[in-house]
Write the structure tokens for this entry.
Amino acid sequence: MIIVMQLNATDAQINGVVSEIRKAGLKEHISRGSELVIIGAIGDENKLEPAHLEILPGVERATRVTKQYKIVARDSHPAGSIVKVRGIPIGGNQIQIIAGPCSVETQEQMNLSADAVAAAGCRMMRGGAFKPRTSPYAFQGLGVEGLEYFQQAAKRHNLPIVTELMDVRMLDTFMEYDVDVIQIGARNMQNFDLLKEVGRVNKPVILKRGLSATIAEWLMAAEYIAAGGNHNIIFCERGIRTFETTYRNVLDVTAIPVLKRETHLPVIVDPSHSGGKAWMVPALSQAAIAAGADGLLVEMHPNPCDAWCDADQALTPEELKKLTVTLGAIAGAIGRSI
Amino acid sequence: MIIVMQLNATDAQINGVVSEIRKAGLKEHISRGSELVIIGAIGDENKLEPAHLEILPGVERATRVTKQYKIVARDSHPAGSIVKVRGIPIGGNQIQIIAGPCSVETQEQMNLSADAVAAAGCRMMRGGAFKPRTSPYAFQGLGVEGLEYFQQAAKRHNLPIVTELMDVRMLDTFMEYDVDVIQIGARNMQNFDLLKEVGRVNKPVILKRGLSATIAEWLMAAEYIAAGGNHNIIFCERGIRTFETTYRNVLDVTAIPVLKRETHLPVIVDPSHSGGKAWMVPALSQAAIAAGADGLLVEMHPNPCDAWCDADQALTPEELKKLTVTLGAIAGAIGRSI
Amino acid sequence: MIIVMQLNATDAQINGVVSEIRKAGLKEHISRGSELVIIGAIGDENKLEPAHLEILPGVERATRVTKQYKIVARDSHPAGSIVKVRGIPIGGNQIQIIAGPCSVETQEQMNLSADAVAAAGCRMMRGGAFKPRTSPYAFQGLGVEGLEYFQQAAKRHNLPIVTELMDVRMLDTFMEYDVDVIQIGARNMQNFDLLKEVGRVNKPVILKRGLSATIAEWLMAAEYIAAGGNHNIIFCERGIRTFETTYRNVLDVTAIPVLKRETHLPVIVDPSHSGGKAWMVPALSQAAIAAGADGLLVEMHPNPCDAWCDADQALTPEELKKLTVTLGAIAGAIGRSI
Amino acid sequence: MIIVMQLNATDAQINGVVSEIRKAGLKEHISRGSELVIIGAIGDENKLEPAHLEILPGVERATRVTKQYKIVARDSHPAGSIVKVRGIPIGGNQIQIIAGPCSVETQEQMNLSADAVAAAGCRMMRGGAFKPRTSPYAFQGLGVEGLEYFQQAAKRHNLPIVTELMDVRMLDTFMEYDVDVIQIGARNMQNFDLLKEVGRVNKPVILKRGLSATIAEWLMAAEYIAAGGNHNIIFCERGIRTFETTYRNVLDVTAIPVLKRETHLPVIVDPSHSGGKAWMVPALSQAAIAAGADGLLVEMHPNPCDAWCDADQALTPEELKKLTVTLGAIAGAIGRSI
């Protein structure tokens, strides 16, 4: 930890900091500059809280120098990790397009969706049985019945399924229905009890970024899961909240190369929720793959006009098929495949 | 709902919108302007989704005109509501200062805290037994043991207690320990399952604003609670996330008069988490009361230097006492009391 | 304009709005819904200000329906415009990479830069003679001397030059030195007097997006230039300011497809200032081209370690050359060329 | 400057940093921790750029420890400065309310405005002759004619006038018309050439905060003015841009105590532009004074319904008078006067 003292800090104040550092079992290292005194605290930084030093008289600020995430840090696994979902690799050279409807509606809709997902050459399917909705009066998802429809439809093409878990009390049900990948939504990125529970099961987890979560908070949220023993975590960038109101969210493509540097885990992108309109999805998907994303989580509906939610952001089966061709060409341009 | 058509929208496209409006049981009202055609959909707006209209050909955008929150809207209770906590009114002329430590640490620390809260003339006490921490390796709160200490300490001064509920599975325990006010933290503002559950109990709820939640989303989160039957909701502004990095969050004082206009429910402010530093707390507290807040949720610790978390933002007992005097004078200046 | 009345608005209040609409020479169109009355004002919307209607009693809000930008709107030129710089097209099928150092330093540095720009196959060169610096004590650019060096160096390869104009009083000098493209920087996007002046000259203008400018404000800033008669405007996205602090700015790729839809003018991207680090530039450049950008404005320095400003974000000549090859492959994947 | 090395940085990399530090004439101070090596560069920090160190191999990041603003820093004048405008103090115990219309319209409107300003007990008057408007087609202000009307009206009550300077070429005219306080608007906060010019004249300057300017950038913008010799600078917080769309901007009250700590110069608040609605102005004004602001810049119009711009945010003369009474009481509560 580095402690910058205020201009004119007295020796007594410097000694106060030193004694706090020693009390925590660390050693001090004092640099006296022309204007300022800076104190380094050497040793196990987790034994000290910046807040405890910042209230001491004469202290300007205290800053950690080590990162608080350990298991998910790239340093712990420099070569990069591949998360396997029933044998399908996420995080390797091959890029995975996970497609499907926003919400599970009927058995027929799911069957048609699964057909379209498979026809477009995608290897995994998404769909929501439990829906986080801003309004309590909006459709909240079919619940367990939705999981049933989803599994039925996906089985016909042997597609692993990805679906969102909102309530910790439903985790057992997810295990019973053998959900292949558990999705943690943006609004629950810091629902710490939920993170702890999915950290205890042996299932890959897609961790969406919170609407205004920093990269550091997101990595720490993943560390919550990893600390429980489950290291099969996939980050999913889905657009952040900014001042701009012309589109729903701003897809943060910069997060892709930054995360790939900070963590060994795979990074995918949801181009559907970021823009919020189907006509933006191709441009955003192409940008994501070109920037180095390991996959996409994209909304497709057999008939968007009839979709029960987010109708305006779903691709048609034809649009999905066309998009995957372009994405294949872009993947090739950067030495990857789809 | 208002549907603005694109420039040059054809009659067929207009008819397409009209038929969709009628299908939902509403009536259309067409305004043909010099440049644009605008269509009003008259009737129960909840039967129509903007998304469904925005994918129709020729549509520029569709906008709701009615608000989606009903129970919490001021229109439903123009005179304003007072939430009572063991007889203490929140939302009336009297302003309530709820003080106490960030987290419950020991029985002694809680006893000293309760003494200081009472000595400053505050009528309610806060303290966290379950702590949402960014890092899984940080102190997570004492849990149930903390509730025990808290109740013991508060009873000595007959102070109602306010504490945060993070996990839906702990709700029964909160009821057993007779927590007086359940706090929903910023990170859980859109944890919809948690909101639904506290909507079913008969306990006042403090609903903190999410770090980047809009006023509309916050009102809808309260509506989730209200829709379950529990109308004893208190909004708590606690600073929002912006581009500014000099301080932890930006206290959004504008939210105070805006909320007071939009909802009949009380609005309080947490000046401690917004700024993140004890020396900012007096200025922010004064601003909040002057802007019309119905109360404060403020951190105080018998000995901030030893606090187990957020040491740098807790007031000392003396600072709290001094602050309440100034706040009393400001309250008087705007015709209220403390 | 659409005026939504408050719940329970009286007939007198509705009449007040109607009379205001008629006074401005427009006609009213009243829709009485089940809950709300909505009034459409039909005619020339520019004759009415929403603010004037919103202060009338009983009015909830007034919203424009037509866009305020006219010349730059795609509707005015649906096929899209190509801006030519000494015969080089920006906005057509061919993508332009404009490269060069952050600031002009010496004649030798500029000569080496021009050699590298040409060697990488780029057709235009960038470089700053006047630098907007956060600190008054930082290097402010070489000024006119810098323009001299820049022109000398660029001439050897017949490269058109792009450079930033900060002070309206320097415009004549820019014309004398025959600057090919005038760049308006992010901090001056709403320096309206500067916009008006460059609107009167016959030179292409690159208009960078303000750090927190909305798409609508940016389009209106371009309209200021266009209203003066100069329609040769190129939009340049350069990253926006958000809550994220891990990188300097967030490159807003969503702005690319949205602008391409809203305006007929070309859109380029500055990948260097958005991320702020050279190692992020390839990923961001690739994302920009894949999302449909018409070009890039990228920093390259013959020896980044010695650069006088922004040393950490400049590519080396070799990195630039390598990047253009990848960008060529991505351009091919979406049916374009470099 | 503090340089944090990457995990596993080699001795050669550490030596590279050391040699760069010495080349700039500073001395190194190396702390070898359990995990990381940290290097302090001791001496004149302005001789080193973090960017130059961050591109060296093995460097994680380089951070300045000294502040880049000197003249405006509180350290340079710990007691605080009072800026006098024709004898009226800004920054002392007395709080100044500067009121007047958004824009100068007619001689009569200005006369009525001046009467109302004086009647409310305010000692200075504001009004815009040059208006920064988002649209080139909107009213741009009366220009020089407006200065004429403004001076005429203000003289009748001996009120010093405050008005905005947008174009550096108008500075001489401002001096001729003897404008008492030059206002630099939010959009020009980083128009560095304009800042340099007002730094050379002997007139107080109100420097509004940019829409998304950080505190550090704002202080540096003031330093630009101060570096020219003009130290009569008044900071004006006017709301920042965030994700919230219910109101125009978020008044950042936290900036008040923070600025008062960082600089010795006065800090005032514009409650009119932050909220954007007249009904919010009293709450925001009260919050600003309670938080420690040295004054307000508030919009008042003799007849808001007829105002040529921002009609919805101007107070009436009666509302202003009533507000000053409340503000006087709040000032008294915190030991100040109006």
About this structure: Chain C touches chain B through 24 residues (CB under 8 Å). The mean pLDDT of chain C is 95. The CA atoms of residues 109 and 306 of chain C lie 10 Å apart.
